[in-house]
Amino acid sequence: MISLKKTAFACAALVGAIGIAAVLVPAKPSFARKPIEIFPRETSETCRDGDATLYDQCSDQVQIYRMAMAKAVAEHKTVLVSYGAEWCIWCHVFDAYIHGETDKFTYRFGSPSQPVPSHTATLYERPPSDISKSAERLNAYVADNFVVLHIDQQYANGMDVLDLTDAAKHLGPGIPFIFTLDGDGKFAAELVHDTVEMRRDSADWYRGYERDRLLTSLTAMRNKAQVASPLAARVGQ
Prior knowledge:
Layout: E1 2-3, H1 7-14, E2 21-26, E3 37-39, H2 61-75, E4 78-84, H3 89-98, E5 104-109, E6 119-124, H4 132-145, E7 146-152, H5 158-164, E8 174-175, E9 177-181, E10 187-190, E11 197-200, E12 206-209, H6 211-228
Parallel strand pairs: 3-7, 4-7
Antiparallel strand pairs: 1-8, 2-5, 4-9, 5-6, 9-10, 11-12
InterPro entries: Thioredoxin-like_sf
Protein name: DUF255 domain-containing protein
């Protein structure tokens, strides 16, 4: 997770060392990845610089939220929200991990004040053992149980979604703010990043997740959402 309070320091002092991701180009996994239902379904090439890959920085975020809720109700799934921004490295790392990426990741990155990617870094996971099965389990669980919703924090009306879902009071100092919604489209549970993040801050720096711990956390978040208000034939208001 990136602290918004420390963003200026991170951009000025660490952009050459740890960077802030804008685009992720992962290595191919050793297994067949399952597709994940994601909203927005695509980003616009005519929105701002046209380089966004996760977040729709120009459209109404409430409308995107309502479309995601409708899809989740129709497929009996839970909405998993990632409230973040294109410049946030952890936002892109989370997306890569739930899609089953492994081993080698190449980032083009910028900063909130300079969002156009101008730096490139290749990160190597260097796991001590084969992690393909863990990556496959994580990807399959997310694909089978969630509709993933990306809500933009930087440019669009993302706070309207947090207010609408009662998630605003749970928002901490950093992004991504990852949480589940119950069947009424309200906040259910959030990801505690410190329990699942994996990082190296050496010259061979890396940002990632302990996949099995992440899977356990996401399972608990989904279960809490289901208990709070089981998905029914309705759309969040």
